[in-house]
């Protein structure tokens, strides 16, 4: 039997294909923590507690990728850690792309879109995913999100809706 990979206290046999935006232990730990919190396991569960400790350490790093910040913001929102959630969302807001009355996030260094007649560009799946995680982080709040947060979330939802393909789905597998 193959030896499991241990990521911040979480044993894992799979998940390499789940990493849409970044390939590192922090994003994988965030994916698994989100899944555990959505079950819902309580934040007091030892595996969740250890994973959140690992993610808190990672969240303090200044060089986190936008995709990683989006996952971390949602994980902390699910865990009820308002302070970390807000700090990450504030950081993400500074990196947001505002265009045509909508808001989204894209990977650093991405080539700008070329506007062509009769062609609507769709973002790569990783960008749809990270923007969706930011939206989830905005909407997952206790108490309920404030009106200004809901207004900002509607700008994010507008962009996500514009990324639907003709069949109503998205390029993302997540």
UniProtKB/TrEMBL annotation:
<dbReference type="InterPro" id="IPR008930">
    <property type="entry name" value="Terpenoid_cyclase/PrenylTrfase"/>
</dbReference>
<dbReference type="InterPro" id="IPR011626">
    <property type="entry name" value="Alpha-macroglobulin_TED"/>
</dbReference>
<protein>
    <submittedName>
        <fullName>PZP protein</fullName>
    </submittedName>
</protein>
<dbReference type="Pfam" id="PF07678">
    <property type="entry name" value="TED_complement"/>
</dbReference>
<feature type="domain" description="Alpha-macroglobulin-like TED">
    <location>
        <begin position="15"/>
        <end position="174"/>
    </location>
</feature>
<dbReference type="GO" id="GO:0005615">
    <property type="term" value="C:extracellular space"/>
</dbReference>
<dbReference type="InterPro" id="IPR050473">
    <property type="entry name" value="A2M/Complement_sys"/>
</dbReference>
């Amino acid at each position: 039997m193959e030896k499991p990979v241990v990521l911040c206290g979480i044993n894992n046999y799979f998940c390499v294909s789940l990493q849409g935006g970044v390939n590192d232990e922090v994003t994988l730990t965030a994916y698994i923590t989100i899944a555990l919190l959505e079950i819902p396991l309580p934040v007091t569960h030892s595996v969740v507690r250890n994973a959140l400790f690992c993610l808190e350490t990672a969240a303090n790093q200044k060089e986190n990728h936008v995709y990683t910040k989006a996952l971390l913001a949602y994980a902390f929102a699910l865990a009820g850690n308002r302070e970390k959630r807000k700090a990450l969302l504030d950081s993400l807001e500074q990196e947001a792309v505002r265009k045509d009355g909508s808001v989204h996030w894209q990977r650093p260094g991405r080539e700008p879109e070329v506007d062509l007649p009769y062609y609507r560009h769709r973002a790569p799946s990783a960008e749809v995913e990270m923007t969706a995680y930011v939206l989830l982080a905005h909407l997952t709040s206790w108490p309920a999100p404030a009106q200004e947060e809901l207004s900002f979330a509607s700008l994010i939802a507008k962009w996500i809706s514009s990324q639907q393909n003709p069949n109503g789905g998205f390029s993302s597998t997540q």
